[in-house]
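pasting for ref
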Amino acid sequence: MCQSEWMDFRSQYSSFVSLQTTPLWTGGLDNTVRSWDLREGRQLQQHDFTSQIFSLGYCPTGEWLAVGMESSNVEVLHVNKPDKYQLHLHESCVLSLKFAYCGKWFVSTGKDNLLNAWRTPYGASIFQSKESSSVLSCDISVDDKYIVTGSGDKKATVYEVIY
């Protein structure tokens, strides 16, 4: 196995969405979200924000991209249309985002100790849970039945999703 640097996305990019998505989405400290065509090595889209980008989540349906920001906001962008939703439930920066595999909902976590679950794409609040410290990361099981979070007090929490 061999590893080589193929494409340089410059150091200002702090977040990216899995290479399994096409195109690749990046976001970073320069307040910009970009999409890239990896085959041609060129930028496809650019979205400018007023805050640093701390996290990205790509919906499995291929229609929506959630952007978590230092300003505590989450914005949900349609990847092919100008549709955009601004969501405000966090009290501090948004550290991670993850869409359910069904694409109907997603979660966000933050420095404010909160786990928020939102309806895709418009952001109706489904539930909110307060943890004991900053919630640094999250993931959702492939069957959408469990959410796991990792927090600043070195604790993982597993939530069962019942609906």
